[in-house]
Amino acid sequence: MDDAIDPGSPRYARQRVLPGFGDAGQRRLADAHVVVLGAGGLGSAVVPVLVAAGVGRLTIVDDDVVDVTNLHRQLLHGHADVGRTKVDSAADAAAALSPETAVHPVPHRYTAENADALLADADLVIDGTDDLPTLYVADDAAARAGIPLVWGSAARFSGQVGVSWEERGVSYRDLFPEPPADGGLSCEIDGILPTVCTVTGGMMAGEALKLLTGIGEPLIGRVLVYDALSGRTREVRYRRAGDVAAPPRGSRSAEGASRGPLAGAGPRDGAGAPPRPEAPAEVEAPALADELASDAPPVLVDVREPWEAEIAAIPGSVLIPLGELGERASELDPAASVVVYCHLGVRSQRAAQQLVSAGFGVVRNLAGGIDAWSRTVDSAVARY
């Protein structure tokens, strides 16, 4: 359909003058179709920015209804919206900001059954559900569609933002191969500072605008971690297991590297990717405690970030953040028995795969990470 947005409108004058943005960038936004998963705390920051910036079409997917406990952070909705579907409330808020934007509300959960259909003509998908099963479905569907996935999460005082793009060589599964067994933190149980949603969602929207217009350097293969209590941000780099400087899987030549408004998008097929390596062996926390107390303890490698190690660590471990493991693996003995751990056992699984690919003979992952260690071995180790 013909978009109703006028890219030359004075409404967008303050962003058209940005270096590298211009009329071409504004036209890309007007021609773009973005699918937003989740109309909650993160979606409440993402949707208004995209609509106000001039994105032509927006599909909003969420099966939830507005609850009064949402209102302190989900600013798309007001008191009068309690009981309404979030997508309808979000669509009304978007229309109030930009009546010209075509908004398609989908009051259903995003699942493996409807994922491909909802992304059929999308240029970008944004996951703001903060629901790990949905994120993995979105990651796989985006890979099949050949489009980037902007994802974010927010809980307590911290938020994370990243970009996964199989066509450019990394997916969310390369960062976290499998979801944690406990499902991670939740706002209902663990709480959430409202500004964490605002900041995290704003960064997610910024990544979307960069990808759609072709400006800047997207967070591909990088995760930005925001700590509201300290006001600091940290970056975590990652790559496909076993990759050193390998080209992206399924990469194409520059001649075929554009589709529609998305600057630099590749062809929309997900075929031809090699199988992922099998998951490494795991060791349960109590069994590891016994091994560490023996005459031949394994080498214990902590692949978390330094700020996490400051909160809690298993005594005697070597700290090598996951993003540095490729460069620092030579500090470890390939012939030694190595156990890697992280917070919940997901990053360390990827680290173990990376070490196996690098020629390490005996590598295991601590199941459940340091959180399991705290719960089952040493309660004095802080949980976070």
How would you describe this structure to a colleague?
With 384 residues, the protein is an alpha/beta fold. It has two domains: 10-256, NAD(P)-binding Rossmann-like Domain (Rossmann fold); 281-376, Rhodanese-like domain (Oxidized Rhodanese, domain 1). It is built from 14 helices and 13 strands. The strands form two sheets. The protein has an eight-stranded mixed sheet, sandwiched between helices. Strands 9-13-12-10-11 form a five-stranded parallel sheet. α3 (43-53) links the parallel β1 and β2 (57-61). α3 (43-53) packs parallel to α4 and α3 runs parallel beside α9 (194-213).
Task: Fill in the keyword field for this structure.
Oxidized Rhodanese, domain 1, alpha/beta, about 375 residues, Rossmann fold, elongated, 5-stranded parallel beta sheet, 8-stranded mixed beta sheet, 13 strands
The percent range for strand residues is: 15-25%
Write the element-wise H/E pattern from the N-terminal end onward.
Answer: HHEHEHEHEHEEHHHEEEHEHEHEHEH
| Whole-number tally of structural domains | 2
> How far apart are the first and last residues' alpha carbons, in Å?
49 Å
Unreliable parts: 244-277
- Main beta sheet: 8 strands, mixed
Shape: elongated
Which strand order spans the largest sheet, edge to edge or round the barrel?
3-2-1-4-5-6-7-8
Overall CATH architecture of the largest domain? 3-Layer(aba) Sandwich
CATH class category name of the largest domain? Alpha Beta
Q: How many strands? A: 13
Structural class: alpha/beta
CATH superfamily name of the largest domain? Answer: NAD(P)-binding Rossmann-like Domain
